[in-house]
Amino acid sequence: MMVDSKDFEKLNQELGFEFNKYVLMHSEILDKIPPGAQVVFLLDNNPEFNVWSKRVNEKQREANQPFIFVHIEKLLNETCRVINPHVEATA
After folding, report:
1. Are the beta carbons of 34 and 81 closer than 8 angstroms?
2. Residues 9-47: b if buried by 16+ CB within 10 A, e if exposed
3. Which domain holds residue 37?
């Protein structure tokens, strides 16, 4: 099945967002990422995305820039922790 690159772009953004949240809770992982590194997200069990991610990131990589793979086993289903929000208009 061929996937639109827009779907991969959205998935890559989601992985980046979720990884940033992970880093906030586990800052020690930053010790494994050199400053200025090109971070490439790879998602287990999604070889099509992984090929796309490597290709796109290689194009963006600067000369001599470290290339770091972040392997992600999976994303959990989306959950929202907001319960019964109330929206109020103001004047």
Report:
1. no
2. eebbeebeeeeeeeeeeeeeeeeeeeeeeeebbbbeebe
3. 5-72
In a domain, 61, yes or no: yes
Domains of the chain: total: 1
Residue 68, both tokens:
């770091």
Q: Report pTM.
A: 0.78
Cα-based distances in Å from 50 to 47, 82, 83, 90: 5, 32, 35, 46
Distance in angstroms (rounded) separating the CA atoms of residues 46 and 42: 8
85 within domain boundaries: no
What pLDDT, in 10s, does the model give residues 27-75? 999 999 999 999 999 999 999 999 999 999 999 999 999 888 999 988 7
